[in-house]
Amino acid sequence: MAAPAARPGRVRVAAPATSANLGPGFDAAGLALDWWDTLEVTVRPGPPSFRATGPHAERLTDQLAAGPDNLVLASMRALADEAGADLPGVRLDLVKGFPLGRGFGSSAAAIALGVLAARALVAPGLPDRAVVDLAARIEGHPDNVAPCLLGGATIALAAGGRLTVHRLRPAAGLAAVALVAAAPLSTAAARRALPAEVPFAVAARTAGRAALLAPALTGAFELLLEATEDVLHQPVRLALDQVAARAVAGLRAGGHAAVLSGAGPSVLVLTPAAAQAEALAAAEAVLGGAAGWVVRPVGLSAMGAIDSVEVTP
After folding, report:
1. Highest CATH level, class, for 174-298
2. Gap between the Cα atoms of 47 and 44, Å rounded
3. Overall pTM > 0.85
4. In the chain, N or C terminus with fewer CB closer than 10 Å?
5. CB 17 within 8 A of CB 36
């Protein structure tokens, strides 16, 4: 009988930021951004330890080491349980490259990092699809975890216990501008603001705009403004942050395809790369020096976390 394969001594995984909804694609559409968190997992005896560094590590502390709030470690344990395997002792070193709680999929990235690191350690034969399914179950919705794991743009739907994911490759000439909010907003708080019911006309208008998202993302840039119009969830969420509301209204009035990024309060502008500088200047102008807000150009990522795993003995 062949000897079991040696367990890796170190795993490195990177996960991109994501922007979900993209206006009318509520809980379904998502886009991977070229903005990354990185996790290095070192196998060693003893209880798990955790360290967070990087430009956006201010809300993460060593106290998360083995607690239930450490989403990376919880996701590693969930993958090990799914595979019927024991997770070894580990040291987790996270470099937080994009902000937490601002609408760029930090929780999805943490889940992706955890499940992929654990797969490399204890279940390397587990199919990619099983990883995506598990990540979506942990997150509770697939709109961020699907593009985070797979890269590009995704349309994902979880219904009746079944997950459907379709990946799109955004056009090479598509770029973005991020207006990063000064303060975080919990997704739970943003979801509580949503109405229990919406008028039929709102649903119909949303369906029409959402149907335009795929062609707009894949090259029909003339559709970007119309494809990202939303009357379903953004109006009530924008009421939670006056700066975001002013930014979205002002940018869209100027012809820029601005949306809340995820649940907000940050804003994302989708733009042809040739017009990215113009969108950047427009974003600075509409913010008018709002305290703590940061504007930055962002590329899109065709690569997802699944493509980033590096294993060493």
Report:
1. alpha beta
2. 9
3. yes
4. N
5. yes
